[in-house]
Design goal:
Layout lengths: L8 E2 L8 E13 L2 E12 L9 E5 L4 E7 L2 E2 L6 E3 L2 E5 L4 E10 L9 E5 L2 E5 L19 E10 L5 E4 L2 E8 L2 E12 L6 E4 L2 E8 L5 E8 L8 H18 L7 E7 L6 E2 L4 E5 L12 H16 L8 E2 L5 H19 L2 H20 L11 E2 L8 H18 L1 H15 L3 E2 L1 H12 L8 H4 L5 E9 L4 E9 L14 E4 L1 E3 L5 E2 L7 E4 L3 E6 L7 E3 L9 E3 L4 H10 L3 H24 L8 H12 L5 H8 L4 H7 L5 H33 L7 H19 L5 H11 L3 H13 L5 H12 L3 H12 L7 H8 L9 H14 L1 H4 L5 H16 L1 H7 L1 H4 L6 H15 L6 H11 L1
Parallel strand pairs: 2-12, 18-19, 19-21, 22-24, 25-33
Antiparallel strand pairs: 1-23, 2-3, 3-9, 4-8, 5-6, 5-9, 7-8, 10-11, 11-16, 12-15, 13-16, 14-15, 17-18, 20-21, 25-26, 26-31, 27-30, 28-29, 28-32
The chain binds (3S)-3,7-diaminoheptanoic acid and zinc ion.
Length: 873
């Protein structure tokens, strides 16, 4: 906690460290009331230090220092300076050995950083700056060291002792035992991990491309053993994919994953010992939905891919976070696309980007992919660094083509293996292999905000010439008033009258936009084409082109690009919803545009079998998406428009929707977990949900039947969600019976919480308060907080934004409570309030005063302080 204003850290102040640590030997003695950590460090001056100063500053937070021994001599307290954030030592020899003994209290650690307890185990989370809560150290990613770790604990309580690398020695005496692990690869301390507990494992093996045998284990609490197979299969698929697509082979003899139930985010890529939030690794069809299966596969892959993009080559400083995260998200996204469907995966990624990331770009926390400053680095694990960062890598892939891009990554991995580097180093490799000048492209890393690209066109019938005129701009963002033009790849298609692509003479249809205004001419165009702009969403920009509703319908059925077919439908629906919202605000009758009804009818009538895509095509844009697109957010009008549209679709098409639902229900393999079965379920359940949102007369009966007979969690939970969404008379019975059936399964209960918290019909504030008082709810468990408070504030627009503004006060209370317990989670919860300026005045004022109330708290954590103070600027 900070009483004074936290310090801002700037990229421009980066200096290499004065000292480096070649070897780190750690010994952990774990007890029920605390842990003793003994470190033995081989330290020497850094030959690459700039203006070397003989001062060693070791980071350390909430540690009890017991001994500090330099080259065998215990230092007296006047020989170093100790404060709340570390130790400073001066006048040191060129090279020396430092022994540090600290006493820490994992049992009292509720921020879940450093060494802490989860259930009955000990575990760690060190990225970004958690290692300093374990021992005094140079806690920065450019200090890479060789680690050995000895863990000693009571044998009966902690039979399993794990750390990074390979086990090399073990022993026991009386009721205690110990195990030593050695990691042969140098690494920064943020990749350190330790686990001790009574765990069971599932084991498998993988033969790498050079024929080495790797032992794979997933460690879980004994009752979760039945839930590991999917993660294990996903891991093997990831290992194979990284060999085939990037030529990257795994490098240790062992790869371990551990599932823990109290975890601040999804998972962590510690070298050889990935630690996962149990919700991101455990899955079987009885207890997990198809969406969870896909999430587990993606996160297992993401963490595995970090072994190269993150661990072997790591970040020089935390401003470079996107070097590993953006690149690794791009890698996991392409992996998922290869496993399932490229178009559907693209739709999912772009939906997230266009709602949440664009909102971040337009809000007070806007920052570039490589930020220039931060107060608390945990606040910068953002959609901008991750998802927009991945889009930037994707654009490099688009500009260079797959082959050159691969040459670039080969060069990057080879040149920088074992190093801590920058995003510039990454781009330099791409420049070198392609012989292209990417200096303008680098602005994607340094300029924040979402560029807007406006396109107009002219067709000259006589000359058979078509001209596109493109203008780009980017709005000011905090600290960046003026932007320079970006280098933007636009994958373009020109669709002719017959619905076929007209061939155009640009590289793979990629046009490069580099100026603020530019025109592109196309010859021999027989008739006015419909432009299909930014196919596959080739750049993270907002696109303005005044499509007529007929053109959008035309693209919906003819565009050869799957993503743009979907996007045309979304544009059409958004236009219609905006008209309806306007009518609602003016107090006029809300009517639905005929063109949209016809478009919907053709999707519903489509007999093709790309079910996951049909489910996406049919989805009405979310409130988050509509809000992000609005200049001023009028919540009631948007809610009314969306409800009105869903109601109208059901009024008009209920019979056809029900028939299609029943057909799909009949043909679906309920036990299947293959892409096809999952796709069928996704379409079937999208139809059921539409019936629920649009007050379908048959809903209760269909949903209750599906609920009672469900053979898998996807069907069971979708039916439950449909009943709750429709506020059906059966909803309470279904919730009770679901509870009876699953109350022993913590992860399933998280869905039970979130189905209620996210429901506009059901999740009133009173209900949410009841849920936070439920015996299975725990304020110390991040998953529970996210599934109730997070879902309510982030997804339940109608209830959270109630006109009496009680939702904002409720959220502020929770932020203040968590500020003390777990600042990272508290700070994430502020996000919905940070958007206050975008709302109409009554809500905007109330959101602002909730933020002001938080700001008045005297002991605000750095995390919350940064977000709240920047939001109030
Ligand atoms: N690298 C971790 C995230 C750590 C977050 C620290 N606050 C997981 C990931 O992106 O793979
Ligand atoms: Zn990552």
């Amino acid at each position: 906690m900070k009483e004074s204003q936290p310090r801002t850290i700037y990229l421009k102040d980066y200096r290499p460290p004065n000292f480096i640590i070649d070897e780190t030997h750690l010994r952990f003695q774990l007890y029920e009331d605390g842990a003793r950590v003994t470190s033995h460090l081989h330290i020497r001056r850094n030959p690459e230090a700039v203006d070397f100063q003989n001062v060693l500053r070791l980071d350390g937070v909430e540690l009890e220092l017991q001994h500090l021994v330099l080259d065998g001599r215990e230092l007296q307290s006047n020989e170093y300076q100790l404060d709340d954030e570390g130790i400073t030592l001066e006048r040191l020899p060129k090279a020396f050995v430092l022994n540090v003994v600290t006493w820490i209290k994992p049992q009292e650690n509720t921020c879940l950083e450093g060494l802490y307890r989860s259930s009955s185990m000990f575990c760690t989370q060190c990225e970004a700056e958690g290692f300093r809560r374990i021992t005094y150290y140079l806690d920065r990613p450019d200090v890479m060291s060789k680690f050995t770790t000895t863990i000693e604990a009571e044998k009966a309580r902690y039979p399993v002792l794990l750390s990074n690398g390979n086990p090399i020695e073990n022993g026991e005496s009386e009721d205690r035992h110990w195990m030593t692990w050695e990691d042969p690869f140098k690494k920064p301390c943020y990749l350190f991990a330790l686990v001790a507990g009574d765990l069971k494992y599932v084991e498998s093996h993988y033969k790498t491309m050079s024929g080495r045998n790797v032992q794979l284990r997933i460690y879980v609490e004994p009752h979760d053993l039945e839930k590991c197979d999917h993660a294990m299969d996903s891991l093997k698929r990831s290992m194979k994919w990284d060999e085939e697509v990037y030529g990257r082979e795994y490098d240790l003899d062992i790869f371990n994953i551990v599932a823990v139930s109290d975890f601040n985010m999804g998972a962590m890529e510690n070298k050889g010992l990935n630690i996962f939030n149990s919700s991101c690794v455990l899955a079987n069809p009885k207890t997990a939905t198809d969406a969870t299966f896909q999430r587990v596969e993606a996160i297992v892959a993401h963490e595995y891919f970090h072994n190269w993009s993150g661990n072997r080559v790591t970040c020089r400083d935390w401003f470079q976070l996107s070097l590993k995260e953006g690149f690794t998200v791009f890698r996991d996204s392409e992996f998922s696309a290869d496993m399932h469907s490229h178009a559907v995966k693209r739709v999912e990624d772009v939906n997230l980007l266009r709602t949440a990331q664009f909102a971040e770009d337009g809000g007070p926390m806007a920052h570039s992919v490589r930020p220039d400053s931060y107060m608390e680095i945990s606040n910068f694990y953002t959609l901008t660094v991750y998802e927009k960062g991945a889009e930037v890598v994707r654009m490099l892939h688009t500009l260079l083509g797959a082959e050159k891009f691969r040459e670039g990554t080969d060069l990057y991995f080879e040149r920088h293996d074992g190093q801590a580097v920058t995003t510039d180093d990454f781009v330099a490799c791409m420049e070198e292999v392609s012989q292209r000048d990417l200096s303008q492209f680098r602005r994607w890393y340094t300029q924040s905000g979402t560029p807007r690209v406006s396109v107009t066109d002219e067709y000259d019938e006589e000359r058979q010439q078509y001209r596109l005129t493109v203008k780009q701009s980017c709005p000011p963002t905090p600290g960046q008033d003026v932007k320079e033009p970006f280098h933007i790849p636009m994958k373009l298609g020109l669709v002719g009258d017959d619905g076929k692509d007209i061939s155009i003479p640009h590289d793979n249809g990629v046009i490069e936009i580099t100026d603020s205004e530019q025109s592109f001419d196309f010859q021999d165009i027989p008739s006015r084409p419909v432009p299909s702009l930014f196919r596959h969403f080739s750049a993270p920009v907002k696109i303005d082109y005044s499509y007529s509703r007929d053109q959008l319908r035309f693209l919906m059925s003819h565009d050869s690009d799957g993503f743009n077919r979907w996007d045309a439908g979304q544009r059409l629906a958004t236009g219609v919803l905006n008209d309806m919202a306007e009518a609602a605000r003016a107090g006029n009758q809300i009517s639905v545009d005929q063109a949209y009804l016809e478009a919907f009818s053709s999707v519903l009538g489509d007999r093709g079998d790309d079910y996951p895509m049909l489910a996406k095509m049919m989805a009405v844009p979310t409130l988050s998406f509509l809000a992000e697109q609005s200049d001023t957010i009028y919540v009631d009008a948007l809610v009314a428009a969306r409800e009105g549209l869903q109601q109208r679709l059901v009024d008009e098409f209920e019979t056809a929707i029900v028939e299609r639902y029943q057909e799909l229900a009949k043909s679906c393999d309920n036990a299947g977990t293959d892409s096809r079965s999952m796709g069928t379920r996704s379409y079937k359940n999208a139809l059921l949900m539409l019936l629920a949102s649009g007050n379908g007369k048959m809903l209760d009966e269909l949903a209750y039947e599906q609920f009672s007979k469900a053979e898998n969690m996807t069907d069971e939970l979708s039916a439950l969600a449909a009943l709750v969404t429709a506020n059906s008379p059966q909803a309470t019975t279904a919730l009770d019976s679901f509870y009876q059936r699953w109350h022993k399964d913590a992860l399933v209960m998280e869905s039970w919480f979130s189905v209620q918290a996210g429901s506009e019909a059901f999740g009133s504030l009173a209900k949410i308060e009841q849920l936070t008082g439920h015996p299975l709810f725990s304020e110390k468990n991040p998953n529970k907080v996210r599934s109730v408070v997070g879902v309510f504030a982030g997804q339940n627009w109608k209830q959270f934004h109630q006109a009496d503004v009680s939702g904002y006060e409720f959220l502020a209370d929770w932020i203040l409570k968590l500020n003390k317990l777990n600042p990272q989670i508290a700070s994430r919860l502020v996000t919905p309030l940070t958007r206050w300026k975008r709302f109409e005045s009554s809500r905007s004022d109330a959101m602002k005063s909730s933020l002001e109330r938080i700001a008045r708290e005297p002991a605000l954590s750095k995390d919350v302080y940064e977000v709240v103070s920047k939001s109030l600027k």
